[in-house]
Write a structure and sequence with these properties.
The structure holds two protein chains of two kinds.
Chain A lengths: L3 H9 L7 H11 L9 H23 L51 H9 L3 H8 L48
Chain B lengths: L21 H4 L6 H11 L3 H23 L2 H18 L9 H19 L3 H11 L1 H11 L5 H19 L3 H12 L4 H8 L3 H19 L1
The chains are: A mainly alpha, B mainly alpha.
């Protein structure tokens, strides 16, 4: 007796068309040529662009040009005094001074430029050096702010007292009323 | 076609695929020969991939037939599967055999095609009894019986079984056809269908039980 599996197998045990393989290969020929994907040139280019951009950013931050945080030039945020944004030390926003926005303990971007900066300082004029050596008075020490504990009396309103409402009786005999025709 | 065209991709000795019979080709599996072809194809070697097409296109086609039941659709799914495999072969990591990988691709292609067909059940029902290839197979089975009376019984029996198969749920019927094809082991079917092996075994047994119940 023919069993179920044999019938099932013969349901799909069909040979494909003789040209199926050729058609598959023709479809593959129509596909664009494909090699192993090599994406490293793209990544290399992107990495190069990013490296150049990072180097440029570092150069701008550490160049000492006016108007930039971390400037070594007078008239900007840098002053060399405690209590203010300072320059002349490694770090983007300045560091090395207590109580300032600094980067103590954090590797600063412009650290590598500390050496050249010393040479630049030596080239400054006497006026400039004097300006850089000036000392501004330290800011007064501000004690911590405290807010006294607020005490207030009870806000409970007093009890309301309402006097009894007394009404006089109204006459009902019609007296005092006039009839109009 | 000769596999040795891709010999440069592997130091392993190559033999001609033409020396293999069609039945043996599907049993090659991921031998060193296949692995060398796959490695070369991953590097973009079209000749190596063409060899893989030559080896597996029949198995891929029969797998698509199990899902679609119509020769034309199965051949279209086969072509789509190989094109997709060529695009993706560089990502083939070898977690499974190449055969299982390509069969999984064609199975997904076939299922997508089956879902997109409107009123698939009606078409399938008409195929099960009307497709010329199915008739040829039926005649082949019936011819095994010498006695005319037994041939008539066999014809009736085959028609009953096919009608019972048509009434199975797609999951049971697909699994039964894949298992009965002889091209795949249970573990391979499990990977293709993304179900545990135990589920495959249960589906096959349940499909047989339901068909037997209808026949009795």
């Amino acid at each position: 007796m023919i069993d179920i599996d044999r019938i099932a197998r013969h349901s799909i045990d069909t040979e494909p068309s003789a040209d199926l393989e050729a058609r598959v290969l023709a479809r593959l020929d129509a596909e664009p040529a494909r090699g192993r994907r090599r994406t490293w040139p793209v990544w290399a280019m992107a990495g190069g662009v990013m490296a150049v951009a990072a180097a440029g950013l570092i150069g701008v931050l550490g160049s000492g040009s006016p108007g930039v945080l971390g400037s070594r030039r007078p008239g900007v945020l840098g002053s060399g005094s405690p209590g203010v944004l300072e320059s002349g030390s490694p770090g983007v926003l300045g560091s090395g001074s207590p109580g300032v926005l600094g980067s103590r303990g954090v590797p600063a971007v412009a650290t590598a430029e500390a050496g050249p900066e010393v040479e630049k300082t030596a080239e400054l004029t006497v006026e400039e050096l004097a300006w850089m050596d000036r000392r501004l008075p330290a800011l007064p020490v501000v004690e911590e702010l405290w807010v006294d504990f607020l005490e207030y009396e009870s806000i409970q309103p007093e009890a309301l007292s309402i006097a009894p409402l007394i009404m006089t009786a109204l006459p009902t005999d019609g007296a005092g009323m006039e009839r109009h025709h | 076609m000769v596999v040795s065209k891709s010999a440069a991709a592997s130091p392993m000795p190559m033999t001609s695929v033409d020396e293999l019979s069609p039945a043996d080709r599907v049993l090659v599996g991921d031998t060193p020969q296949i692995r060398a072809l796959v490695a070369a194809a991953r590097e973009g070697d079209r000749t190596a991939f063409d060899e893989l097409v030559a080896i597996y296109h029949r198995t891929v086609f029969r797998t698509a037939m199990a899902a679609l039941g119509r020769r034309e659709d199965a051949e279209d799914a086969t072509q789509d599967a190989f094109v997709l495999a060529w695009r993706k072969v560089s990502h083939f990591r070898g977690d499974s055999t190449f055969k299982t990988w390509i069969l999984t691709i064609v199975w997904r292609q076939a299922l997508d095609r089956r879902r997109s067909r409107s009123r698939w059940w009606q078409r399938t029902s008409s195929w099960r009894v009307g497709d010329s290839a199915a008739h040829d197979d039926m005649d082949r089975l019936i011819s095994l019986e010498a006695d005319p009376e037994r041939q008539s019984q066999a014809r009736h029996r085959i028609r009953q079984v096919r009608q019972a198969m048509d009434r199975l749920s797609p999951k049971l019927r697909d699994t039964l056809l894949l298992a009965a094809s002889g091209d795949h082991g249970y573990s391979e079917i499990a990977q293709m269908l993304r179900v545990p092996v135990g589920t495959v075994k249960w589906r096959v047994a349940e499909a047989r039980r339901l068909i037997q119940r209808e026949l009795s």
